[in-house]
TrEMBL record:
Matches recorded under NCBIfam families: PRK00977.1-3, xseB
Protein name from the UniProt record: Exodeoxyribonuclease 7 small subunit
Catalytic activity of the protein: Exonucleolytic cleavage in either 5'- to 3'- or 3'- to 5'-direction to yield nucleoside 5'-phosphates
Localization: Cytoplasm
Major localisation: cytoplasm
Assembly behavior: Heterooligomer composed of large and small subunits.
Record's GO cellular component terms: cytosol; exodeoxyribonuclease VII complex
One MF annotation (Gene Ontology) recorded for this entry: exodeoxyribonuclease VII activity
HAMAP family: Exonuc_7_S (MF_00337)
GO BP of this protein: DNA catabolic process
Top enzyme category: hydrolase
Keyword field: Cytoplasm, Exonuclease, Hydrolase, Nuclease
Coiled-coil parts of chain: none
Amino acid sequence: MSSEAPELNFEQALRALEDIVHKLESGEAPLDESIALYEKGNQLRALCQQRLDAAKARIEAITLGPDGTPAGTTPFDAG
């Protein structure tokens, strides 16, 4: 991955990925450029997934006790 990609936040990486998808779908890029765009897009997709996984791992559900006060936390389960 390029040296600038890890510094992108989720929104920036997603925006860059959307731009790449648009260019690829429009057919405006020659073959060599399309291949390079595809590779960069795949790297950005992986970065976005990494950022989402990290955010998911940080989210915890608060468990309430019988009296309604917080009794602890449990890992997030989107399942």
